[in-house]
Design a protein that fits this description.
Protein name: Transposase, putative
Largest sheet: 11 strands, mixed
Radius of gyration: 23 Å
Strand content: 15-25%
Number of helices: 10
CATH topology of the largest domain: Transposase Inhibitor Protein From Tn5, Chain A, domain 1
Pfam families: DDE_5 (PF13546)
Distance between the termini: 59 Å
Order of helices and strands: HHHHHEEEEHEHEEEEEEHHH
Shape: globular
Organism: Fischerella thermalis JSC-11
CATH architecture of the largest domain: Alpha-Beta Complex
CATH class of the largest domain: Alpha Beta
Oligomer: single chain
InterPro entries: IS701-like (IPR039365), IS701-like_DDE_dom (IPR038721), RNaseH-like_sf (IPR012337)
Length: about 375
């Protein structure tokens, strides 16, 4: 009986990472397409659509499309394997959970769950598709955990159940905890119009959190109560490229200090056109900078670390309309994101080992 041929090689780091998934593909050809998609999605082409990737790699576009939409691999098996890899890297350590509400503008209404809704990437209502995503942040690295699409009430399909974004977040938290993940802090951007519900869910889960809120969030105060501000304190705002900028943080106290505390962060205490201001809500029991080294930097990962990286890989470049197929595309993109995080993790380990060896030699 002839032995099945081995899959063709691609890039070493891609082959090494994808080998973890080989057993999930019944056909060697499917496994090869899985690997080639990882190569294409980390390439320098402007758009990561299937036709563009097929052209760049010299593959048949229809065969690549068939792999994404019809090939008999199971998305849950792929996701479970990816989460298993992440659990091995985390080694049961507690991490910061980042919740990201991602929206992508899409034309027309032929794509499942596309509707006119709030698109956080644009900061306004537009026609598009929205998902709620979760990431693990530890040791300066981000690992993609899971995602759930938001199904607008007007676009529900037979068998669908309407769930708000906070409800999707609650499901994600419950599933991650059941899957053995432990997180000691949750970072989230405001879910449009549902801030109170999100806070209640995080409190019910007994989780520490920092949530970015909009400046127009209102509070009821008794006639005798006033709004107070603590003195500005300097801190260094750290960007993803390692650069720093001096910024300021102060607490806003509505009447008397309560369990929920409110913070204002700015890069300029004077009102000016260049002034950047962010408002945070947290249940951390002490000064926010004492609990989190760089609260601004962590919150900024929501916009620049997660969303930009994911879009670079091709999250929104799908040209398919059926959500079951879109979900398969998003899972492959999440796998590529995980692969890149693994590469940084390996590089980090090698660098730490080199420093350790150098220090050992100096001591000797």
């Amino acid at each position: 009986m002839a032995q099945p041929r081995e899959a063709t090689t691609t890039r070493t780091f891609v082959d090494n990472y994808c080998a973890n998934y080989k057993h999930l593909f019944p056909e060697v050809r499917s496994f090869e397409f899985f690997k080639w998609l990882h190569v294409g999605l980390v390439s320098d082409i402007d758009r990561k659509s299937l036709p563009a990737i097929a052209k760049y790699l010299g593959l048949n576009n229809q065969a690549l499309l068939h792999f994404v939409t019809e090939s008999p691999w199971q998305i849950n098996e792929l996701r479970n394997q990816r989460l298993s890899i992440i659990r091995q890297v985390l080694q049961r350590r507690s991490f910061t959970l980042i919740i990201d509400d991602t929206g992508d503008k899409k034309k027309g209404k032929t794509t499942d769950y596309v509707d006119k809704q709030y698109i956080g990437n644009l900061g306004k209502f537009e026609n598009g598709i929205v998902s709620v995503n979760a990431y693990a942040f530890l040791d300066g690295l981000i690992f993609p955990l899971t995602f759930k699409v938001f199904r607008p009430l007007k676009r529900l399909k037979p068998g669908d159940t309407f769930k708000t974004k906070p409800q999707l977040i609650a499901e994600i938290i419950e599933e991650l905890q059941a899957g053995g993940f432990t997180f000691d802090l949750v970072l989230a951007d405001t879910v449009y119009g549902e801030c109170d519900t999100l806070i209640n869910i995080l409190n019910q889960s007994q989780l520490n959190f920092i949530v970015a809120i909009r400046s127009n969030v209102g509070f009821w105060l008794a006639p005798s109560q006033k709004i107070r501000y603590t003195s500005w304190k300097k801190f260094h705002r750290i960007f993803s490229n390692g650069k720093t900028e001096q910024s300021y943080i102060r607490e806003i106290i509505f009447g008397s200090r309560r369990e929920l505390r409110y913070w204002q962060i700015t890069n300029n205490r004077e009102q000016s056109a260049e002034n950047f201001t962010m408002f945070l809500m947290s249940n951390l029991p002490k000064f926010i900078n004492s609990a989190v080294d760089n609260p601004y930097g962590l919150i900024t990962w929501l916009e620049y670390g997660c969303k930009h990286s994911k879009n670079y890989i091709g999250w929104s470049d799908f040209r398919i309309t059926n959500y079951e197929q879109i979900e398969r595309w998003w899972e492959i993109v999440s796998s590529v994101y995980c692969m890149l995080s693994m590469q940084f993790h390996i590089f980090q380990q090698k660098s730490n080992q080199a420093i350790h060896n150098q220090n050992t030699e100096l001591i000797a």
